[in-house]
Structure formats: structure tokens, C-alpha cells
Amino acid sequence: DENRDDMVARLASSVYKQGEAARDANDMAAAVDHFRRVAVLAPGSSIVPTAEYDAAAALIGLERWGEAAGVLEDFRARYPDHELNNDVDEKLAAAYLKSDQPVKAAGELERIASTSTDHALREQSLWQAQELYEQAGMIGETARVLTNYVNEFSYPVEPAIEARQKLAGIYEQQGDTAGYHYWLNEIVIADAGAGSERSTRTKYLAAKASMVLAEPVARTYRAITLTVPLDQSLPAKKSQMERALDAYARAADYGVSEVTTAATYRIAEIYDDFGRALMESQRPAGLNTDEFEQYEILLEEQAFPFEEQAIDLHEVNVGRLSDGVYDEWVKASLEALAKLMPARYAKTEKSENAVASMY
User: Fold this and answer.
1) Which of 5, 90, 133, 166 has the lowest CB atom count within 10 Å?
2) Model confidence over 307-359: pLDDT tens digits?
3) b vs e for 85-105, b when ≥16 Cβ sit within 10 Å of the residue's Cβ?
């Protein structure tokens, strides 16, 4: 009939107004029933999408999260281009969260992060998504979202560096050393370029990262043995030693107490190791007794300054006791001094007096 479309529209409007009246009367259950009847009685009406959306909102008000999620899913599937879809994403994320569906909630939050024009909302959504994946034990998805976060949100600097720290932790747990070191290096780079946004926290994370990154450099140094002819093996070991010292020095430069004491200890350890490596180096063949003794004296002369440097650095670490700093690395320096200078440091009761005498 020619009047059919008009009658359907009037019927849809009438039922919708019943839903509005129930909602205004705070009878949300009745409002849901009326709003959902619109699609049943007048499926072709233009008001159906709005009625479905309002039904979902009422279900959320009633905390009927599972039903609300179902209505919202149906809405998005049937009306993909509707202007209310942006709000649907947020409501659906909330419904999934409340109905204990964290993985689906994370997916919705990713969707919001990719479609919203609100920068802060996009950032918060992506961060929350990776947290939900992490809670669900989906480490691969967590790493993927964190990587997206770092690529898209370099600022503010601190949360972006925290994201890098989490990524480094993930790769470390997975035994992926290359990935672990990559993200540690990214922390160092991000902190160095942070400018006015550089904070105590970013420097702390960068200092810890630098300390870890120095370790493989030191291992490479230790792996080089001194063999004859010494004038060929010595430059290679000394060159790598300088690289290791520079790496630990960069870590110490951040001024983070626990990193500074660790780096100081490691630097002292390298000097001590270099001196011992000289003394334990391969001797040339064919030396007579006098030549052998002269060679030993020469090695001792070469090794002595490195041992002295190690002692000086360990004493610098121990000197921090007067500032109230006593951690595992200060303790380790005390133990090292007890071996290097037993007459002065071997007894615990003398160690503190020795430190006091330095000031």
C-alpha cells in the first residue's frame, strides 16, 4: 500500500518513544525491550540503528555486559558506516572488559587507537591493549602492540621509554639476546634525545641498559688471550680493553648510584684482569735463565700500573661508604681490596678505618 512506509515509520517512532519514556522513568529493563522491538516491528525504519544503539546503552546501564556486547557487535556488523560506530568501539571495549573478555577488549582498544582522532585516547587505548594481552599471557601480541606504541607515540618520552623497557624484558625472557640488546640500545638513544623531557626515571633506565650493553664488550675483551709474539696479541687485547672501559664509563656517567658503583667495580676488574693477563701471558720459547728472569721483571713492570689503577678504583668505590652508599658493588670492591692489599683490607674492622683515612 502506498501508505505502508509512512505507517512503518510511525510505528517505529511510537515504539521508540515508549523506550524513551521508560528510560526517562529509569525503567531501563523496559526501555531495552521497547528499543529492541523497533527492529522487530519496523525492520526497514531509519530509526532502527538509533534504537539498537540506545538498547545497548541501556544494557550497559543495567550492567548486562554480555547482552550489551552482543547488541553492539550486531550493530557494527549491520551498520558499518554509521556515525555512532566510534562510540560503539568504546562501549564494546568496556563491555568486553566487564564481561571478562580481555582479549576481545584489547582488540577493540587497538581499533580505537587506529581510528580515533583524539591523540591522548589513541595512546591510552594502545597502552591498555598491551596490558590486557600481557595479562592474558599473549606475549607475542603484547610485543606487537608495544612495538606499534613505540613507533607511533615517541612522546611523551617517559612512557615511550617504559614501552621499550617492557619490550627488552620480553626479548630477554624469550632468550632472544639480539632483540634484548636492540631495545636496550633504543632506551639509551631515546633518553639521549629526550631533551627537556629527560627525567630521573629515563636516566635510570638508560643507565641500567648501558650497563648491560657493556657486558658483551667486556666479554670480548676477556676472550682475547696474550700469546707470543706479544707485540701482535697485546694491541688487540688493549684496544678491546679500551672499548670495554669506555662502555662502563658511559654507564657510570648517568650518575645513578647503583650503576656507578657497579661500573666502577667492573672498570677496576678490567684493569686488574689486564695486569694478570700480562703476568699469565705465553712466554717466548728458547729463553735462557737470565733472559727469562729479565722477561719476568719486564712483565711485572708492565702489569704493576694496571694493578695500581684497579686498587685506586676499588678504593673510590669503598670511599662511597662515607656518603652512606653500601651496596653489593661496594662490598665486592672491599673483597677485591682484601685480596689485592690484604695487609690493609683483609680484616673487616680495618676496612672502615682505611676508608676514613682517605678523607
Assistant:
1) 5
2) 999 999 999 999 999 999 999 999 999 999 999 998 888 765 444 443 333 33
3) beebbbbbbbbbbbbebbebb
pLDDT value, residue 52: 95
Contact 114, 92 (CB under 8 A): no
For residue 136, how far is the Cα from the chain centroid?
Answer: 18
**Taking a C-beta distance cutoff of 8 angstroms, is the pair 297, 245 a contact?**
no
Among 210, 329, 312, which Cα is nearest to 266's?
A: 329
CB 264 within 8 A of CB 313: yes
pLDDT value, residue 67: 94
Inter-CA distances, 194 with 65, 100, 161, 182, 201, Å: 42, 38, 10, 18, 12
Nearest-CA neighbor of 214 among 164, 269, 167, 159? Answer: 269
Residues 76/84, Cβ–Cβ less than 8 Å: no
SS3 26: coil
pLDDT at 334: 94
Residues of the chain with pLDDT under 70: 347-359
The whole-number pLDDT of residue 317 equals 96
**Look-up of cell digits 669503598:** 318
With helix as H, strand as E and coil as C, how does 278-339 read?
Answer: HHCCCCCCCCCHHHHHHHHHHHHHHHHHHHHHHHHHHHHHHHHHHHCCCCHHHHHHHHHHHH
CB within 8 Å of 198: residues ≥ 6 apart: 157, 191
In angstroms, the CA 339 to CA 323 distance is 24
* pTM for the structure as a whole: 0.83
> Within the chain, how many helices (H) and strands (E) appear?
17, 0
